[in-house]
Amino acid sequence: MSFHIEKIAELARLHLKPEEKTKLEKDLGAILSYVEQLKGLDTTGVETTSHVLNLENVYRPDEVVVSTVRDKALKQAPQSEASFFKVPKTVDKES
Amino acid sequence: MSEYFSLTLKEAQKAAREDSAGVLASVRNRAAALNPKINAFVRFDAAKAVSQSGAQGLLLSGIPIAIKDNICIDGWETTCASKILKGHIPPYDAAAVEKIKQAGGVIFAQANMDEFAFGSSSETSAHGPVRNPWDLERVPGGSSGGSAAAVAADMAFAALGSDTGGSIRQPAAFCGVVGLKPTYGLVSRYGLIAFGSSFDQIGPITKTVEDTALMMNILAGHDARDSTSAKMTVPDYTGALQKDMRGLKIGLPKEFFIEGLDPEIEKSVRDAAEIYRKLGAEIRTVSLPHTPHSVAVYYIVAVAEASSNLGRYDGVRYGARMPGKDLKELYFNTRSEGFGAEAKRRILLGTFVLSAGYYDAYYRQGQKVRTLIRDDFQKAFKEVDLILGPTTPTPAFKIGEKTADPIAMYLSDIFTIPANLAGVPALSVPCGFAGGKLPIGLQLMGRPFEETTLLRAGYALEQELQLFKQKPILS
Questions:
Q1: ipTM for the predicted complex
Q2: What's the pLDDT score for residue A57?
Q3: Which of A12, A30, A39 sits opposite B407 (nearest CB)?
């Protein structure tokens, strides 16, 4: 197995300090070697587990209900305006 | 007269009917005196607690309860003991919290834990480590270490924990208290901050098995807001408690009595099996042949789910935000600054096993082996009603002992992870002391939704051993 810590960190939206990178690279290497044991197991024809008790999908009627959660949640957000979360500009205007 | 705080939940019900102010004051003072030593609570506010209590004559009227810091309480900062969720105030109650409030319970404290429940020792908390009440130099287990330590130290009559790979049972064992991981789907996960969604369950940590049954009468039941919540009729768990074990078949899995298991723990668990035999149960040896791979499966599948669940912490909607020149930099800054070392380790590992080119080899294979482990349980439960083994391979270890070696830490959950992989219920009950002073727990696992059988067996042992009467010495 091989992995590029920088690439994974980029995917996970994490900047790693040099000392963090060394330690995490070592830890991940050790954990991935440990889980190698699964490769030897014969799982031909075995289904994957998606729900432990094979629960069927659950549907509910699509009904409009009153909720106050939005306003309370927005009030606690790092930055909000009207009924929106506010973030720095993501798209530059065409010049 | 003994102080109210030392009562069991069952005893406190009566005491609170007669003197609810006295009961609350006793626990509050106890918590205030001991928290600086044990660090079981990240926040506790007796003034808020007083304002909640009111309704009389309910199951938990006037009873102070602690809630793990990953279970949302409306209007109370809830952070999963992390830095990244600092300032996060949930706009609603978790279903379990709602139920405790409806039963008259006094929610007064939020229990310390490993950050995002990532850990087996409660050392990864952004609020500093929790200490084991039986030995302050040792860990209380994790991730619900604050919940277990609080109950063991009489700082709460009961606490809620959550269990993804053993996070209720392992700390319950280390702290000499009772912890139940219910069947997946029995207790609503609505308002539980997600770690591994196909594993997570909320459950109680209490002083006795009878108290666990009392709590389950309150917590169990269908909730439409959790799509994995099971539709079923909830039995009366307290009604199931009895000492007679006749007719029960109990299996000892040979894979759980292995090299590395502490000899005192092995003896204690085998002695308990002998007690069950005397009480009328039939004891057999069973095999769960794929369970030795449980830790490997768990550290693929659970971290994959965790990395996905933690994708939402990006500084946009809740908790802390570290500014950046654009949105992408804001994400990076918030996450790099906000997550602790173990969270980063699991996010990276989960991201890797889910990434293109590796998904089949790791995640898919992990989910297949998970099926094999579930099949092992199904087969075993055709032969026996309960599976009995140790909860942990060793008693509580020293603070700092395993922090440098993630695999050594992960292996402390080797006996608890299988129940999460299979979704079956599992109960940890105190069964002795190692070296005369560190609690030992045994684990009973049952068929899905047969908590009544688990509790019956847990109760029978507890009545024989009476270990709940022994308390840590805390001046």
A1: 0.93
A2: 76
A3: A30
